[in-house]
Design goal:
By secondary structure, the chain is an alpha/beta fold. The chain has helices at 41-57, 72-81, 100-104, 112-121, 139-144, 156-160, 200-206, 221-235, 246-263, 269-273, 283-294; strands spanning 20-30, 63-67, 82-90, 93-94, 126-128, 153-155, 169-173, 180-184, 195-199, 212-215, 274-277. It has a six-stranded mixed β-sheet with strand order 2-1-3-7-10-11, with helices on both faces. Strands 4-5-6 form a three-stranded antiparallel β-sheet. Helix 1 links the parallel strand 1 and strand 2. Helix 9 runs parallel beside helix 11 (283-294). The protein starts with 19 loop residues before the first strand and ends with a helix. The relative contact order is 0.14.
Length: 296
Amino acid sequence: PTPTPTPASTSAPTPGSPPTIVPALVVGNPSPMPPGLDALPGCLAEVLSVAGIVNARTSGQARMLTDADALASNAVATLRNDRLRVVHFATHGMQDPIALAQQAGCLSETDTEELRVRRSWDFKGRLACAVPSDHRPDLDDVKQDPYFRHAAFLHAHRTGSLDLSHVNLAVASACDSHRGHFKHLPSTAMGVSRDGAAGLSLSFLRAGVPRAIVTLWPVDDAESALLMVRLYDHLYRGGAEAPFGPLHVARSLRQAVLDLWDSGSHRGKTFAATTITGPALSSTGCRELDCVLYKL
């Protein structure tokens, strides 16, 4: 059974305040959604359940941003100012087709690190957030294409420009969160230069997160919620001291899939899409990880 959620903090930290140790940031069910995107009923149940598991099994309180509080600015402020162990997003995910020159127009002149990351990595991908209450499209906004406005989305280049080395695990429970355009990538925080997909998942790794749970293609909202609740149930079986190494995360994801497989609560497509990405392991570690994930 899913633990009953206990109250979670729903406010973003005050910029400049001392870092607060928070077991998890859980963002989902933004409202209102950016134009053209439907509401995701499963996201609210997902974030409430995930926060409930974290609160019940750790000594801290998850910071939860939902509805009108699920702003990109609030998420970025929390990522910058809090000491987080887990970051979880449950929302729409998509590729970002805007040309680099158009994207740069959304940045202020003070966003030097963000602009540098954008130019050197050219990440594609974004997570839908709540539209700010002061966002009123006018003629100038229309010329900039308001659907892709900077304020209503958490773009991959924003997460990639942050220092998230304190985060143990990022989860992007959204469609296409592992997709990205294929290119030769600059050296990462792990000192690796290689070819790969410069999308949302890689932006978390570039920011210093050692591993991320992401999706390879569009997924079902309700099925994703079921899978994520089971995932966190297994992740936190050890309570606040649960390890977040690659094999523990892989085993937790595998067991979550098996739970739902045994219950018949699945169609397979969502579970097959959900995978783990992170820095290269040793060859032995890679083989073990493959066995844990795929030999069901």
